[in-house]
Design a protein that fits this description.
Elements lengths: L1 E5 L9 E6 L2 E4 L11 H6 L1 H12 L5 E2 L15 E5 L3 H6 L9 E4 L5 E2 L3 E6 L6 E2 L2 E7 L15 E8 L2 E2 H4 L15 E2 L4 E3 L10 E6 L2 E7 L7 H8 L10 E3 L21 E6 L3 E10 L1
Parallel strand pairs: 5-17, 7-13, 8-19
Antiparallel strand pairs: 1-2, 1-14, 2-3, 3-4, 5-6, 9-12, 10-11, 10-17, 11-14, 15-16, 15-18, 18-19
């Protein structure tokens, strides 16, 4: 099943959960009394609530998806865990070594934004802002020390993430959270697809188009560590809570490594996509 958060014109500051059916959507909070209004509420309700929502969606009133304004696919995750250097081509092009364990950092919640929104930053801060297409994994069942064989059972669904990065800051500081956590630097969505719709998260085409040019074109099968391995490793030291978003790393083709380099410019448009999940577009403005 496919979900999103939208901003209705009459209350744009209050995102609402919708189920998506082709080119139409239905407001989930109208399905039945007490129905969830956000993805986080739906995940917290467990399999029983998801089954009830799934059944009610068949007869719910639907509206055209065209022209709707989206909100972030996740609104208030308990944490956003990002994994770096998880594709050999990307770590190689950045001149960085893939470590024995996953490279993990936290993204700040202010960085979350939505499909077709505009991300802006000050020119004085960075003129080396890069794109990174990533598969987003959303945890459903909590767990600690999750065996790799059971890891995918803890995944609620998947989304698309653009891990936007200020490279000049990334290479001047010892940690990577700030360079990737400017306001609007973590677009997500527009859709979340439940785990049953993705039989194998390591068999997905992932790509990026910047200003009409394809710059990343890969498969999630090229990950150094699979989704199951990441869930296993990340849960070794801390309980993974429901709603946690894991951004699983980006393939090769980053703008920083190209000759000539390609960075996001004022009025650039970048679309990252994963087949079977969706396409996520961001508009860019650089402020003088």
């Amino acid at each position: 099943m496919r979900f999103a958060h939208v901003r209705p014109p009459e209350a744009a500051d209050v995102p609402r959960l919708v189920s998506v059916h082709g080119e139409e959507f239905a407001f989930v909070d109208r399905f039945f009394p007490g129905a969830p209004a956000t993805l986080e509420q739906l995940i917290a309700g467990g399999d029983e609530l998801l089954d009830r929502v799934r059944a009610a969606a068949d007869t719910a009133p639907r509206h055209p998806l065209e022209g709707v304004r989206f909100a972030s696919a996740v609104l208030a995750p308990p944490t956003i865990l990002a994994v770096g250097l998880n594709y050999a081509a990307h770590s190689g092009e950045l001149g960085l070594k893939t470590d024995a364990g996953p490279t993990v950092f936290v993204l700040w919640p202010n960085s979350l934004t939505a499909h077709h929104e505009t991300t802006s930053w000050a020119r004085a801060l960075s003129e080396a802002v890069d794109y990174e297409a990533e598969l987003g994994v959303i945890i459903g069942r909590p767990g600690r020390d999750i065996p790799e064989a059971d890891a995918l059972d803890h995944v609620w669904g998947y989304t698309v993430v653009n891990d936007i990065t200020a490279r000049n800051i990334q290479f001047s500081e010892a940690q990577w959270s700030r360079c990737k956590s400017f306001d609007g630097f973590t677009p997500t969505g527009p859709f979340v697809v439940t785990a049953d719709e993705i039989p194998d998260p390591q068999d997905l085409h992932i790509w990026t188009v910047v200003d009409g040019h394809t710059v990343q074109d890969a498969t999630t099968g090229q990950m150094v560590r699979s989704v199951a391995t990441l869930v296993n490793k990340l849960s070794e030291s801390a309980t993974l809570l429901p709603g946690t978003l894991i951004s699983t790393g980006s393939p090769g083709g980053a703008g920083y490594s190209r000759d000539p380099q390609i960075f996001l410019r004022d009025r650039s448009t970048v679309t990252v996509g994963i087949d079977g999940i969706g396409e996520l577009t961001t508009h860019c403005r650089i402020l003088d």
